[in-house]
Design goal:
Strand content: 5-15%
CATH architecture of the largest domain: Up-down Bundle
CATH topology of the largest domain: Butyryl-CoA Dehydrogenase, subunit A, domain 3
Order of helices and strands: HHHHHHEEEEEEEEEHHHHHHH
Structural class: alpha+beta
Number of domains: 3
Radius of gyration: 21 Å
Helix content: 40-55%
Shape: globular
Length: 382
């Protein structure tokens, strides 16, 4: 099955494709295509180039940089961006805290934070999970206690991705210790340069430093940095996580990796009927997921993601992991060699760290086990 686009939408696709492939920095695109890790400067440059063209936050309200696009236009943008090896706008800014502030924030918060968030003048970090509160997020214990007009925050957050680069963090905190779960939770905006806030690195299984711990020791936060209603943080969390789950079904990027694997491993695939069947099955599953993404985005309303975003998160991460495993299998011994003098060998060598790193995909954004529970309750009515 192929999508049939109108002439206007096909022109829209071509305009995006031309910009992404001819006007976006080539070095950044090569870094993505080769599976190398982007530097902080490259991530910032990428988002600023997109923002200057009005392409960083198209789903936001037009007043704050959005484009008033249809769901299908946003899907085409997302697809073309990934196909061209252009990095997605930083998720913490573009699809998490930005939409939250636009939807729940005060006018003062919108004016202060949204332009800087869209241009990555502020690098945001997410502060949700805690050592004993991951999938059971409502049990979080980081506290915020009133002190005059301010809040005093104490506790710990774990896994803030790229938090070592963060300027501000948006944690969920317990503002009513007597509130029954999930009541009594609020969201604050905290400057990461605040006294008493410390970021500690966590080394991942692939040897990289991507995630962190964030500690709060009597961190003073101005009262105006409360987002939305006091003790209304759970509604904000559900709103944010729904947006995040739509974004963690990277169909375009997964299709691109699979296509590259087919190109480099063609001889091996053609010689093995089981590998051919495996590749064909993955291509069919990715097509089915792509069509499901379209249905989910089309059914979203009032800025609220459809409950089926959990399906996208679940299946999208499963396929991402399956493709990464295929690449390692195709590379064989080459995935454990240095291979830096050979582009093909280097690509396969980088596939092993990618495979190891993507084991996390079934946990972040709400574990896949939790997504199955959400699907059973909200979609299947079980």
């Amino acid at each position: 099955m192929k999508l049939e686009l109108s002439a206007e939408l096909q022109e829209f696709r071509e305009e995006l494709r031309t910009f992404f492939t001819t006007k976006f920095p080539d070095e950044i695109r090569r870094t993505v295509a080769e599976g190398r890790e982007l530097t902080k400067d490259q991530i910032v440059e990428s988002m600023r180039v997109l923002n200057a063209e009005g392409l960083a936050v198209p789903a936001w309200p037009a007043e704050w940089g959005g484009r008033d696009w249809t769901d299908l236009q946003r899907h085409i943008w997302h697809e073309e961006l990934q196909a061209a090896c252009v990095p997605m706008p930083l998720a913490f800014n573009a699809s998490m805290i930005g939409p939250v502030i636009a939807h729940f924030g005060t006018q003062e918060q919108k004016e202060k934070f949204l332009p800087a968030t869209a241009n990555l003048d502020i690098w945001w970090s997410q502060g949700f999970s805690e050592p004993d509160s991951g999938s059971d997020l409502a049990s979080l214990r980081t506290s915020a206690v009133r002190d005059g007009d301010d809040w005093i925050v104490n506790g710990q957050k774990t896994w803030p991705t790229l938090g070592q680069h963060g300027d501000w963090i948006f944690p969920l905190v317990r503002t009513d210790p007597e509130g029954t779960q999930p009541a009594g939770i609020s969201m604050l905006l905290i400057d990461m340069r605040s006294e008493g806030l410390e970021v500690r690195p966590i080394q991942l299984i692939d040897g990289s430093h991507e995630v962190n711990e964030v500690w709060f020791d009597n961190v003073r936060v101005p009262g105006e940095n409360l987002v939305g209603e006091l003790n209304g943080g759970w509604a904000i969390a559900k709103f944010l996580l729904g947006n995040e789950r739509v974004g963690v079904a990277p169909v375009g990027a997964t299709k691109r990796v699979l296509a590259r694997a087919k190109e480099l491993g063609r001889a091996t695939i053609e010689a093995d009927p089981l590998l051919r069947a495996r590749v064909a099955e993955l291509e069919n599953e990715l097509l089915a997921l792509e069509l499901t993404v379209l249905r989910v985005t089309a059914d979203s309303a009032d800025g609220e993601p459809h409950p089926a975003s959990s399906v996208l998160k679940l299946r999208g991460t499963e396929l991402q992991q399956a493709v990464s495993e295929l690449v390692v299998d195709l590379g064989g011994p080459a995935t454990l060699q240095s291979g830096e003098d050979d582009d093909v060998a280097a690509w396969f060598t980088r596939s092993t760290p990618a495979y190891l790193n993507l084991r996390k995909a079934s946990i972040y954004g709400g574990s896949n086990e939790i997504q199955r529970q959400i699907i059973s309750r909200t979609i299947l009515g079980l």
